[in-house]
Please model this.
Amino acid sequence: MTDTLERPRALLPALQLGPITVDTPVVLAPMAGITNTAFRRLCREYGGGLYVNEMVTARALVERRPESLRIIKHEPDEVPRSVQLYSVDPVTTGRAVRMLVEEDRADHIDLNFGCPVPKVTRKGGGSALPWKIGLFESIVTTAVREAEQANIPVTVKMRKGIDEDHLTYLEAGRAARDAGVAAVALHGRTARQHYSGQADWDAIARLREALPDLPVLGNGDIWSAEDAVAMVQRTGVDGVVVGRGCQGRPWLFGDLQAAFEGREDRHRPNLTMVIETLLRHAKMLIPYFDGDERKAMQDIRKHVAWYFKGYPIGGALRSQLVLVETLDQLEDLLGQLDQSIGYPGEAAEGPRGRAGSPKKVHLPEDWLVSQELNEDQRQMIKAAEVDTSGG
Ligand SMILES: Cc1cc2nc3c(=O)[nH]c(=O)nc-3n(C[C@H](O)[C@H](O)[C@H](O)COP(=O)(O)O)c2cc1C
Model:
């Protein structure tokens, strides 16, 4: 008898981003205020993948603002070091990428063209930007050219467009490919949708088809390993990007790795495991905030509801947990929980985090009139360029 024990078949081959091989083609979506070194460590411990940090604005980075330098920090064992940049103009983009290259601060750079928040789209940034296709091309080309100096792959993350009447993803995808990116990721929503409704996986499939020679990653509404497998099967993508689904659930990356390796094992955490993870998360946030315990506890508050989703822990304790100010207090409150509580099943699964309803997209004046910048818009973009006065 030979070899009756077949190895499970991997769902997908490794994802190749320039010189970087991502064995499990799963990416932790960049999430501002969430994907810092502490949370990334928890996720990394469970599974393989690429773990992107929170977005950093190119301008803040070149001005060396302390918060931006904190955001791009990586732990010594974090390889590859992935940084997401947000920028509205090619000059600042180029400077920021050059800084990352010259100071050896990143191994992978992602460009954010998906942010839908008014503060960003009002200036023509994030999900508003690919509409100005010339500007988009110029930013991506500049980033790729600067990053090439150190053989650092650049990827682009974008939404479908501004709204259903102003879709940009196919044109922007082709432009990004021609500019030399290593992959594009598509969140299957428009800016107008924000986080409402359902991500359009058909659009992801269309982009996959439109770019046969470039890795395409799918993003939106992956809440479980099974969802990730379903997305791959339905769209043909080369990998998936997972955001809200892992909030309060870093073990999802273990499940994702298992699923991509063709295994059936999944994490079914009891309350003790959840408490231990939450506590470790809180403790790791303290060094991330340079020893500022209060800041770390303020930060952990937003994770509490996600960690305990589906676990019967009682309203009073929940409300005390989201007011926690010190680590002692947190430990004390967690110590009051009934540690015999097991995995609650479906109640702990499914959607979590931001949702809401469609929102008006705030844009610069006359933004949708043409896909070219007019003079006012050009001036606005130029003004976004590096201001060394520190204003
Ligand atoms: C709290 C939060 C912060 C986010 N911050 C960023 C960001 O900094 N950069 C970015 O490209 N996308 C950001 N996103 C979008 C996610 O990366 C992702 O595209 C989106 O949540 C859809 O994926 P999901 O359905 O897996 O959550 C953020 C999303 C959330 C919920």
Observations:
- Residues 271-343 form a domain with the Non-ribosomal Peptide Synthetase Peptidyl Carrier Protein; Chain A fold (CATH 1.10.1200).
